[in-house]
Sequence to fold (192 residues):
Amino acid sequence: MTNSARSDGAAPAAYKILVAGGFGVGKTTLVGSVSEIRPLSTEEDLSEAGAAVDDLRAIEAKRRTTVAMDFGRITLGGGVVLYLFGTPGQERFWFMWEQLARGAVGAVVLVDTRRLTASFASIDYFEQRSAPFVIAVNQFEDAASYTEDEIRVALDLDPHVPVVLCDARRPDSARTVLVALIDHALRVGESV
Ligand SMILES: Nc1nc2c(ncn2[C@@H]2O[C@H](COP(=O)(O)OP(=O)(O)O)[C@@H](O)[C@H]2O)c(=O)[nH]1
Ligand SMILES: [Mg+2]
Fold:
């Protein structure tokens, strides 16, 4: 509950945001596309051990995986600064989540409609903590397109949770997602 936002008007506000979602949904891509600093990312080649448990079916092209976290920064209008922390997508790294989540105003949960279940655990995590989050549907070219309502039903979302379609590779698109989260988080008035 140590929200880093400042509302004294004298200094720009800074918000910590988590970028979550299953393995291969586009977290590292989103942080990299919007970040104005070279994103820090700790990646390593998929190990033999990891390959056995990671779901590689729809993501054969993905050869590297983030084992620690992605970190980036973006300045919005009015001097609002967002610090982005990508969560490790695999269950075996979840012990890091509590540390990462501390002080965050909310989360972007990325989903890939070809593998919705990959993001279920992330959604559960923020729902259980009553933490603000938005769903960002990362639109991969070969995925079928679904309406917002279909996605809501499939993910069993509460009606107030925003759903935004995006292309994580495009900075303007990723930025729109972040603005949607900040708007939502400020409306809800809760923090992780
Ligand atoms: N076509 C397409 N590919 C994407 C998009 N976002 C990410 N990718 C690719 O999907 C793979 C997984 O993305 P990555 O950001 O590493 O996923 P992470 O495991 O959630 O960090 C990478 O090969 C990306 O280049 C997208 O919006 N469209
Ligand atoms: Mg990653």
Summary: The chain has one domain: 14-191. Strands lie at 14-20, 40-45, 64-75, 81-86, 106-111, 133-138, 163-166. Helices lie at 27-34, 48-53, 97-101, 120-128, 148-155, 171-188.
